[in-house]
Amino acid sequence: MSSLANPVNWVLAAVLGYISYNYFTSSTAPSPPAPRPKHAALVFREYTPKELEPFNGSTPETRILMAVKGNVYDVTRGRNFYGPEGPYGNFAGRDASRGLAKNSFDKDMLSPIDGPIDTLTDLDDDEKESLNDWAGHFEGKYQLVGKLIENKD
Ligand code: HEM
């Protein structure tokens, strides 16, 4: 029997044709990812706790900054961690040093925005080591964009 006369070949040709048609006319091509909001370039500067607070990631247009041991890092690309829905959102726009030292994201790890910078002098050796380890993590992963200084008033 010639291949054209074999009904199995007709069925196979029909299936192949159907698959090819769907492949080339499919409208389910993956859509490009939504564009990320453009953020203004940051110039290295000093931030008081009050000035740092607005960079808390509450809107996608705002960069997220965070202070660790007096250094201010741009953690915007870690928005999943530090955005409003993130597990470490408390740290956004704040001095996270005490929380990192004590491995706690409790709200009472944060010093008041209008108060003095946490001196951290009460930390024990393990807590100091934990904080230094975290400081190394942030230094290696995020851009240093400033220094934390005392409020002016
Ligand atoms: C409940 C236990 C916890 C779990 C299961 C957990 C899980 C994780 C995971 C999976 C990551 C991502 C690691 C990576 O991709 O590099 C991470 C990162 C992180 N965690 Fe936790 N964590 C916990 C507790 C904590 C606590 C108590 C703190 C408080 C200091 C904390 C602070 C952080 C920070 C600062 C990062 C780094 C985020 C970054 O790289 O920007 N975690 N955690």
From TrEMBL:
Database matches in Pfam families: Cyt-b5
UniProt KW Heme keyword: yes
Give the UniProt keywords, A-Z: Endoplasmic reticulum, Heme, Iron, Metal-binding
Query: Which GO cellular component term is one of those annotated?
Result: membrane
UniProt cross-references to SUPFAM superfamilies, sorted A to Z: Cytochrome b5-like heme/steroid binding domain
Provide the protein's localization.
Endoplasmic reticulum
Q: So which domain of life are we looking at?
A: Eukaryota
Query: Care to name a GO molecular-function term for this sequence?
Result: metal ion binding
Q: Which residues form the signal peptide?
A: none
Q: Which residues form the Cytochrome b5 heme-binding domain?
A: 47-149
Q: Give the family this protein belongs to, as stated in its UniProt record.
A: Belongs to the cytochrome b5 family. MAPR subfamily.
Instruction: From the Swiss-Prot or TrEMBL record, give the protein name.
Output: Cytochrome b5 heme-binding domain-containing protein
Species name = Linnemannia hyalina
Lineage at the top is:
Eukaryota, Fungi, Fungi incertae sedis, Mucoromycota, Mortierellomycotina
